TrEMBL record:
Organism the protein comes from: Leucobacter viscericola
Gene designation: purN
List of residues binding N(1)-(5-phospho-beta-D-ribosyl)glycinamide: 12-14
Residue numbers marked as site, Raises pKa of active site His: 150
Alphabetized PANTHER family for the sequence: PHOSPHORIBOSYLGLYCINAMIDE FORMYLTRANSFERASE
EC code: 2.1.2.2
Keyword Ribosomal protein carried by entry: no
Protein name per Swiss-Prot or TrEMBL: Phosphoribosylglycinamide formyltransferase
Catalytic activity: N(1)-(5-phospho-beta-D-ribosyl)glycinamide + (6R)-10-formyltetrahydrofolate = N(2)-formyl-N(1)-(5-phospho-beta-D-ribosyl)glycinamide + (6S)-5,6,7,8-tetrahydrofolate + H(+)
EC category name: transferase
Key words of the record: Purine biosynthesis, Transferase
CDD domains, per the entry: FMT_core_GART
Amino acid sequence: MLKLAVLISGGGSNLQALLEAAADPDYPAQIVCVGSDTDAPGLEHARAAGIPTFIVRPKDSENREEWGQLLATAIQEHGVGTGPEPGLVVSAGLMRILPAGFVREFSPNLINTHPALLPLFPGAHAVRDALAAGATETGVTVHVIDEGVDTGPVLRQARVEVLPEESEAELHERIKQLERPLLVRTVRDIALGTLNLP
């Protein structure tokens, strides 16, 4: 059983999808903790499911690297990132770039979802950037986090057509409809060993 630590900043829709998947006894991964950089509303999903939560606020640290060290320690206290079976850290809507020390500690067992077909449109405004570029299609990527910004190895992608006159919010919502099942399948395949981390 693959142990998961899930990191969020917002409402936790990807977290909720993973929680629903993990509630099935045949799903080969178990969420052991959920962490955030703020008092994210999505933490309530984890609490309702009886899963331990923690908050590590960057403002309580002297610098980003110290914040990353505290975040890593909080995850490792739940058995992820330690021992012969390191588990998997899933950035499921964490709206911060993880510090280099944190990435070195966990990568490649550290994955993220991104609302674009990487390497196209990296960064925080991927959906807006795709529309501004006149893209006719975009999508979602699940990738390994490395020390760059959305530059890690791509694990899985799903495509979505950009519709005429579509707003950023409308397109982003359609991407999220693909993002949740893609993340659930990717984590399952990593747990089963049918998808190998680089």
